[in-house]
Amino acid sequence: MAPTLGKRKRVTREELERPSRSASPSSGSGEDSGAEDLQAIFQRAFEAKFKPLPIEPKKPKIEETRIEEEDEDSEQAEAESDWSGISSADDDAIEVIEYNPTLSTYSPSETTEKKVFMSSKPPTSTQPRISTATTTKKTADPDTELTNLKNDHALQKLLRDSHLLSASPTPTLTATGVARHKSTDLHLQSLGAKGSVFTQKKMPMAQRKHMVQKARLGEEKRRALAKEAGIVLEREQRDGNGNGKAEREKRRERGVGAPSVGRFRGGTLMLSRGDVRSITGGRGRGGNGKGKGKGMKGKRGGG
Amino acid sequence: MALDTPLQQPLSFTGHHHLTTRLVLATLTGRPIRITQIRSTTTNPGLTRSETNFIRLLDAVTNGSQIQFSMTGTTLVYRPGLITGSAEGLGASGGVIRHEIPAECRKRGVSWWLLPLCMLAPFSKGNMNVQFWGEGCITSSTLAGDISADTVRTAILPLYKHFAIERGIELRILKRSAQPVGGKGAGGEVQLVFNHQVRLPKTLHLLNPGRVKKIRGVSYCVEVPKSNNERMTFAARGVLNKFVPDTYIFSDASAAPLIPTTARSHPSGKMKAAVGFGLSLVAETSTGVIYSADLSSPPDGGVPADDIGKQCAYQLLEKISQGGCVEGVAAPTVLMLMAMGSEDVGRVALGRDVLASEEMIQLARDSKVFGGSAWGFREAGGDKEDIVVSVVGRGVGNVGRKVA
C-alpha cells in the first residue's frame, strides 16, 4: 500500500554467512555437521591470523563409551546371579499416581508483589526489590529497643530529680529516703495529681499566713539576689497561693441582682473607702478612675 | 478556541461504527465532525444511551465543545473544544468529575468509557480525575467484549510508559460489580486519576516482542463464595504453569453494591444484583510487552468457575500466539498515541491477526481522513510473522500545553 518506511534493513550475520556456507564443501547433511564445518572455517581463519590452536581430545565420546562398558559389566553380573527377579504377578497391581499440585509455594516476596500488583496504580514491570538489610534490622530490634527505652526512662528520671539529689548533703545518682518520697510526689504531680502529698491541710491560720509570707519573701530575696548577680531565673509562677508578686485577687461570688460594689448588709449598702475611691476615681489616679468601678476592681487587693 | 477561528467545515462520516474512536480523534485533532445515518435503517434509530452518555462525558472533560443532534438522533455534529480535564468550575467538584452511567447503559462495561478517556487524558490541559458511578457502571468484563477495569489497569495503563507517560496514573476500583441479571442495575464505582500530561508523547519503537517471562492475574468475585476465585485460579494455573512457572493470580472478593429499588420483594428499598466472578490475566514478556485475557461469568450463570479459569488461560495463550508487540485490545490506544506524537517515524510490530481486524483498518483510514499521514506496513523479516507498522506523528500534541 505505502512505500516501506523506516531504516534500511540491517544485514544480519546469518545473511553474511549464508553464501560462504553454501560454497564450502559440506560433508554431512545434518545440522551438526554444518555447525562443525562452520567451526572449521572459523578455526582456519583464526589460525591464519594467529598461531595454530592446540588440538583438544574429544572427551564426551570417551565418557559415553565408558558408561556403556559399565552397563555391560552390570548386565553380565546380573546374568551371572541366579536371582530370577520379581514375578510377573506384580504387573497387574494397580498403579497409584499421586498428583500433588504444589500451589502455595509462596516466596517471601509474594506479599510485596501482591501489593505492587493489586494497588490502584498500574503495575510496574520491574521486580520489587527485597531488602535484606531491613530484615536483619528487625531481628535485632526488640532487644535494643527495650534497653533504649529503659535508658531513656532512667535519664528522664535523673533529670527530674537532679535538684533533689544535688540538695542532699551526699549527692548520689539514686534518690533515697526523703528525696525519694519527694521525687515520687513530683512525678505524681506531673502526671496530674491535684496537690502535693506533703502540704499540710489543717493548720492555724496565722501559721499558714506566716508560711506563705515566708515562702514569698524567700522567693523575692532569691530573685533579688539573682538579679543583682545577673542570673536569669525561671519565669515567675503566678498561682493562687499568693506566691506571685502581681497576684490578682479573684472576683468574689455575688448574688444575682446584688450591687456589684460594696457590701450589702441589713438593707444597707456599705461602701468602703476603697470602693468610694474606685467610683470617684480620686487621689492622683486621674482619668483612669472616671469609668465605673469595674476596671479598678483588681487593684483593690494589690493596693 | 472555537470562537475566534472561522468555523471549519466538518468531516463527514456515516454509521454508528467506531463512534468513540472518531470522537476521540476529533477531540485530539480539533477537527469538527458530522456523523450521519446513525442506525437510520433500524427500528430503533439513533444513538444508544451509552453513546450519548459518552458524549456527555466528552462534554464534561472539555471546554467549549458544541454538540448537535438531529431530531431523530441519526445525525450528530460535534465541534470539539479544549480538553481541560477535571478543572474546577467546569463540572468538577473538589477536583473530581463524578460521571453517572445510568442503568440503560449496562450493556457496556466501564472500560468502554475508560479507554477513550485514557487516550484523551495525556493531552488534557489540567489533571484528569473522573469517577464513574451509577447503575450502568460494570467493572467486570462483559459479553459485549469490553475488558474489565482490572485489565485496563494492568494491561492498558502500563503501555503509556512507552510514551514517557507514567507518573500519577491510578485506576481505583472503589466498588466491584459483575454483569447484572435481567433489567437490574450494577452500581460499580471506578475512579481514574491521570495526572501526567505531556506536550508530545515520545516516539515509539517497539519491534521485539521477547519471550513471556511472567504471568499475573486477578480473580475477582462479587457476592459469591471466594472458593470460585480459588477454582478459577487453580484451573488457569493448571494450563499456564507448564509454560511459565512464574504465574501468580491474586484473589479479590467483594460484596455487591446496593442498588436502590422500588420492588416490593425488597422492603429495605435496596437490592444486590450485579453478582458473579471473573478472571483477568496478564502475561509480560522480557521486553515489557503485555498480553492480556479476560473472562467473566455470564449474567445468567450456569458456567462453573473451573471452565472460566481454563477458558481464560486458553484465551491468553491464543493472544500470545497471535504475536506482535501489542495485543488487539491495546492496539488502538498505542497507534492513536503514535499518531499524535512528534513528527517522527514510530514503529511497532503487530501480529497479523491483530492488524487485520476491522477496527484497526478503520482506525488507519480515519486517522488519514483527520489529516494524519498514511501508515506504512512491511514484513518484520527473519522468521517472524509480524508486520511492522510505521506511523508518522502529527506533531500537534497537546494544544493546552503549548508554550506561547
Automatic annotation (TrEMBL), chain A:
Residues 1-145, 234-303 are annotated as: Disordered. GO terms for biological process: maturation of SSU-rRNA from tricistronic rRNA transcript (SSU-rRNA, 5.8S rRNA, LSU-rRNA). Residues 46-65, 234-255 have a biased composition (Basic and acidic residues). Residues 66-81 have a biased composition (Acidic residues). One of its GO terms (cellular component) is nucleolus. The lineage of its organism: Eukaryota, Fungi, Dikarya, Ascomycota, Pezizomycotina. InterPro entries: FSAF1-like (IPR027973), Ribosomal_biogenesis_FAF1-like (IPR053030). Residues 101-110, 121-131 have a biased composition (Polar residues). Residues 1-11, 291-303 have a biased composition (Basic residues). Residues 281-290 have a biased composition (Gly residues). This is Uncharacterized protein. Residues 21-38 have a biased composition (Low complexity).
TrEMBL record, chain B:
InterPro entries: RNA3'-term_phos_cycl_insert, RNA3'_phos_cyclase_dom, RNA3'_phos_cyclase_dom_sf, RNA3'_term_phos_cyc, RNA3'_term_phos_cyc_type_2, RNA3'P_cycl/enolpyr_Trfase_a/b, RPTC_insert. One of its GO terms (molecular function) is RNA endonuclease activity. It is found in: Nucleus, Nucleolus. This is 18S rRNA biogenesis protein. GO terms for biological process: endonucleolytic cleavage of tricistronic rRNA transcript (SSU-rRNA, 5.8S rRNA, LSU-rRNA). CDD domains: RNA_Cyclase_Class_I (cd00875). Its main location: nucleus. Residues 13-344 form the RNA 3'-terminal phosphate cyclase domain. NCBIfam families: 18S_RNA_Rcl1p. It comes from Decorospora gaudefroyi. Belongs to the RNA 3'-terminal cyclase family. Type 2 subfamily.
